[in-house]
Amino acid sequence: MIDSKFVNTIFALGLLILMSSSQAKSKDYKLEILDLNPVDLCGKEFEREVIVAPTIGTVIKSDSLIGFELSLSYDPEVVRMNRVLTINTFADRFKYKKSNADGDNGEIIFEGAVDLKGFPNPLSGSLPLVGFAGDFIGDCNDTVVFGINYFFPFDDFKGSVDADTSLEIAGRIVDKPSRSIGFDIEDTEIVLKQDSSTSLNIELDLGELSSLEYWKVRLTLDTDSISINDIVGNNSIIIDDVTIEDDNGYLVDMSILDSDETNIMLNIISSKYDTADVNLNIETVETTECVCATRFPNLEFNFTNRQSKDSVKSSVNYFTEFENVNGLIIPKVNGINVQVYSVLGNKVDEKYCNVNNVYDSNRLKKGIYFIKVTTSNFTKIYKKINN
User: Fold this and answer.
1) Given the DSSP bridges, would you call strands 359-360 and 328-331 parallel, antiparallel or unpaired?
2) CA spacing 20 to 30 A to 186: which of 165, 207, 268, 341?
3) Are strands 96-102 and 107-113 parallel, antiparallel or unpaired?
4) Distance of CA 42 to CAs 73, 283, 349, Å?
5) Cα 182 from Cα 291, distance rounded (Å)
6) Looking at the predicted structure, is the pLDDT value of residue 245 above 60?
7) In this structure, are residues 169 and 135 in contact, taking their beta carbons and an 8 Å threshold?
């Protein structure tokens, strides 16, 4: 007959071996927060949705994870979390589930377990614990940090979890070819003569965009013998301001009222005697904050400033009928008419001068002006900067 003391010893050893084996299988887990839906602020509704999923990686069954309680924090000014997702997560296997979202303080809580009655079947595999969804309500480049307030596995869990983790999500605009703004010039050829002007129509191409409200562009001419006298918008666009820069550059601030038929008209004036090729460069400097455009192409347009018989004749007459000396416009033979325009094309002064009168442009207020001098034979335009 087997000694009962011996049987008890064998049982104790077996239990110790079983416990040692179970402890050897338990593991250390690292809790992470997965970003399952990168935010595209200019995408469709589902592309602007935030979906995050806490996970502890691959769970082994012997660690007896049968349930947990988890609290996730976020900034309610940037995201509005309001939905719990369980499909394709461990929470989908729970019979007991409970959640609560506090949108004012930025917290969402989930609690669940496989079964509260009888012997539960522990979780195993590589699924996320649970998913949380909401809407990104911030602006471009706003960021939100998701953190774990706490993670409590139920008492039977044998593993250990490091829950010191966070996830940062930023609002962004995905770069797509259709999200571009640019420029288009229908004129195939423009020829300017000395002492003449022409109009150039530039179409502002908004593509598929309708959210553009403000647009600043830089127009640059590669010669100082060509000037832009006026820039005019149409019913869909307003020219708010024009700033003349060094090197014959013009900064143009525009308000977009309607995304359809957005055009601006340039009034270009030539004062050059010799034929030359001119390059007009147009580039976007600034747009509405968080505009959905992701591409801002530049435009280069070339045209010809051409000498003509008329321009040669006018250059001869110019020196015999009047002269411009340090801002003083002096008639020499016949009377002349002097008109002064601002950079926006508004007439600010006009005077007829005979041989006994002099027009002093230095008396004009501080600013940039275009002075148009007309004789019986020709017209001459000067650019005058008063500091």
Assistant:
1) antiparallel
2) 341
3) antiparallel
4) 26, 23, 49
5) 14
6) yes
7) no
Cα(182)–Cα(252) distance, integer angstroms = 15
CA pair distance 371, 380, nearest whole angstrom: 8
Pairing of strands 237-245, 182-185: unpaired
Kindly indicate the confidence band of residue 313, based on its pLDDT and cuts at 50, 70 and 90.
Answer: very low
Identity at 145, one-letter amino acid code: V
- Which tokens is 196 given? 């003449």
Written as six digits, the tokens of 86 are 């369980």
Give the contacts of 230 (CB within 8 A, at least 6 positions apart): 266, 267, 341, 344, 345
Indicate the pLDDT class of residue 192, thresholds 50, 70 and 90: confident
Give residue 15's pLDDT: 42
* pLDDT for residue 222: 86
Tokens in use for 119?
């012997």
Residue 16 DSSP one-character state: H
Tens-digit pLDDT profile for residues 22-40: 444 689 999 999 999 999 9
Contact (Cβ atoms closer than 8 angstroms) between residue 70 and residue 129: yes
Cβ proximity of 32 and 54 under 8 Å: yes
Q: Which parts of the chain fold into alpha helices (H)? A: 4-25, 309-321
Out of 78-82, 183-187, 349-353, least confident range: 183-187
Is this prediction's pTM over 0.70?
no
Tokens standing for residue 120: 């539960």
